[in-house]
Amino acid sequence: MVRIAFIINGSKKLTVQVQDILSQCKEHPEIEAIQFCTKRTKEAIEIAKLCTIQNFDVIVSVGGDGTMNEVLNGIMYAKTEIKPVLAILPNGTGNDFIKSAKLKANTADFVNAILENRTSKIDIGRIESNNRIHYFLNISDTGFGGKVIEILDKQRKYFGGKMSYSIAILRAFFGFKRPTLSIVTDDFQFQGEVLIVAICNGGVFGNGLTINPYAKIDDGVLNITLLGKVSLFDYIKNLRNLKKGIPITHPEAHYLEAKSIEIRSIKGKVSSEMDGEFLEIGDQIISVVENGIKILRF
User: Fold this and answer.
1) What is the pLDDT of residues 218-254, one digit of tens each?
2) CA geometry: angle at 110 spanning 105 and 112, to 5°?
């Protein structure tokens, strides 16, 4: 018997495909499926932690990248040696990790993948800041992307979906000022103004932009895209290339890889996000956790 916990973002209407999977799992004789529906932000962290402690075999994140991030953190915060498999059913506004991980998300094959234990180990990112630990599956971003998510969080009750994201980008465009940061890895040092520093386990963020075409979720390193004194206009000129997965060509664009990165604020307001979730943090030490979790492939 496979024990599955479905953690569902309660603010989103379930697609027909997701409803069908829930019905299949509840009716299958070899599966014990329990459904949890969140009613507030961060609740998925608490539920995932409890389900991990209770030894569920699979925890399914049903929502967007933000729900996925909460579920991941709940799993990692549980003080257990054995972690459940993480499965991701896209049912949100942004589902960039699915693209980064090259998951087909073929809902018709979900039950077979569960029963056949079709999993693979992947890396995860770990952020240490202000004596707290956070984890991410896809990308952590400091700079312009963090500012967009900060604005998005504040306006969620007024706007929803892709319109809200577009409005947040527009508002950030007119209000963002590049902070001065210190960025240090084992073999790279930088201090200066920064438009974006994206620490990438996966390569796709911002609703389909390939911010780092070299990132792989299972290579044991984190890839870094550092856009220093790059103007927002230069960034916008490159959006078409980013959608195609083409690197930005600019003297202030750097593509690196490292196992650990230290980011410190020197001047200006700093905003950060991870997997589309706003982070109220200060200086950061970000490192890779190799083979940190198993994901379901379907």
Assistant:
1) 999 999 999 999 998 999 899 899 999 999 999 999 9
2) 135
Cα torsion through 277, 281, 286, 290, rounded to 10: -40
Nearest to 224 by CA among 189, 265, 267: 189
Distance CA 20, CA 150 (A): 35
Residue 256 pLDDT greater than 70, yes or no: yes
Same domain assignment for residues 70 and 166 = no
pLDDT at 162 over 80: no
The answer to whether 123 and 201 have CB atoms below 8 angstroms apart is yes
Q: What angle, rounded to 10 degrees, do the helices at 43-53 and 65-77 form?
A: 40
Give backbone dihedrals phi and psi of 178, rounded to 5 degrees, phi first: -65, 125
What lies within 8 Å, CB to CB, of 41 at 6+ separation is none
| Count of domains for the chain | 2
- How far apart CA 279 and CA 294 sit, in angstroms, is 25
Q: Which of 50-64, 107-121, 168-182, 195-209 has the lowest mean pLDDT?
A: 168-182
Residues recorded for the chain = 298
Same domain flag for 188 and 260: yes
Domain at 44, CATH number: 3.40.50.10330
Decide which of 60, 76, 92 is a domain's last residue.
92
Helix (H) or strand (E) holding 44: helix 43-53
Domain extent at residue 46: 2-92
Q: Are residues 190 and 286 in the same domain?
A: yes
Answer yes or no: do 140 and 262 share one domain.
yes
State how far the Cα of 33 lies from the Cα of 277, in Å rounded to an integer: 28
